[in-house]
Amino acid sequence: MNLHTVSPASATAEKAPTQFSRRGVIKASTLLGALGMTTAASAVTSQAPALAAIAPPAIISTAAWGAKPPTSALSTLNYRPTYLVIHHMDSPNVTDYSVAAAHRIARSVQSWHFARGWADSGQQFSISRGGHALEGRHGSVRTLQGGASFVLGAHVANNNSKAVGIECEGVYSRVLPTQSLYATLVHLATYICQQYRIPVANIVPHRHFGSTSCCGDAFVAALPTLRSDVARSLSAGRILVSQLGGPPPLPPTTTYPTLRQGSTGDAVVRLQKLLAARGHSPGAADGSFGPATLAAVQSFQRAIGTTADSVVGPKTWGALEARAAAGSRLAMGAAGAEVTALQKALNATMTAGLTVDGQFGPNTEIAVKNYQRSRSLSADGVVGTQTWAALKGGR
User: Fold this and answer.
1) Contact 13, 85 (CB under 8 A)
2) pLDDT tens digits along 192-210
3) Does an H or E element contain 75, and which?
4) Which residues form the Peptidoglycan recognition protein family domain (predicted)?
5) How far, in Å, CA of 268 to CA of 285, rounded?
6) Residues 71-103: pLDDT tens digits?
C-alpha cells in the first residue's frame, strides 16, 4: 500500500464529485445486494502502549474482510485527531449478525465510496450490527496503535483533517443500534480516545459539522450515554457498557473484600458458606475468621493449586464462585446458573461490575475478554476449558 505523510498545514480532504450523495449512494447500492465473496473470518488485535489501561478491541483488518487496494495514495497526518465522529450507514437494519455479514457490508461500503471517486473507504473504522469492528480505510489500525498519527479520511466534509470516523451499520432515525453494536462502539471509542487523547466531549455526531441527519435522531439522543460510558471506562480502566435505551445496569450487590484471620462480619459468613459448599467446611458460619476458617481457607487454596497464603483476595474469591459451575462452554446468548457463577467469579476476580442476572450479554462478553487478555488467554469472549481452569484455579 502506498501511503505518504503530510503536515497539518498541508492536510486536505478528498473531494467527492457533486453528482453523488454519500447517503444516496449507500441506499441505492443496498438494493444491489452485498458485493464480493465472503472471506474467512480473521481479526487483528492491536497492541496498546505499555502503560495503557484499556486493551484494544478486536478489529477485523482490511485484508481479512477482502478490501480492494486504494485507488491512489492515502495520506497519513503526523498529529493526533481532536474529534471522534459517529456515523450511521443509512443502510438496512439487517438481522444477520455474523462475521460474514460484517465482511460483506465492509466491502459494500468501500465500493460505494469508490463510486464517489474516493481512494478508499471514507471512514477509518466500521461496526456491523452484529458488533464486529472493522478497519475501514487502509492503515487505520496501524496508526491507531501508535497513537500519534492517523490516516486522512473522507467522512466529514472540510473537517477530515481533525477527525476520525466510525460508521455504524444501519439507520437510526427512529430506533437505536443493537446492544452488540453499541457495546463494541463503547470499547472502540474508549480505545480511540485513550490512544489519541481525544476529550470525551469531542465524541460528536456527523451533523455536528454540517447539514445532515447523520447519525439519526434516535442515535444522537443516545450519544450522551456513549460519552458517559467512555468516560467511566477510561476512569475505571475497564470497559463499562450501559443498556442502550434503558437505565444503566445496577451495580453488583455483592462485594469481595480481602479477608484474613481476625476479620469479622457478613463477608466472612459468606466466605464460610462458600468454603462449606466447596467441600472445605470451617464449621459454623459465625462471621468470625478464626483458626477453623483459616484451616479451611488453606485447605481450599492447596486443593486448587494456588499459594496457601491464608488470605482471601480476588483470586480466591473468584475460584470459590467459579467452582459452583460445571464448566460448560459459554458464549454470548447463554443463560442460567453457570452464567451466574461466571458473573460472580468475574466480579470477584476482576471487579467487573457485572449485574448478576444469569444472562451472557455484551457486558459479560467484554468482562470475559478483559479477563482472558489479563491471563494471556485467547481473548475470544468464549468461556471454554482454559478460561474455566484459570478462574477455578485462582489465576
Assistant:
1) no
2) 999 999 999 999 999 999 8
3) strand 74-77
4) 57-210
5) 8
6) 999 999 999 999 999 999 999 999 888 999 999
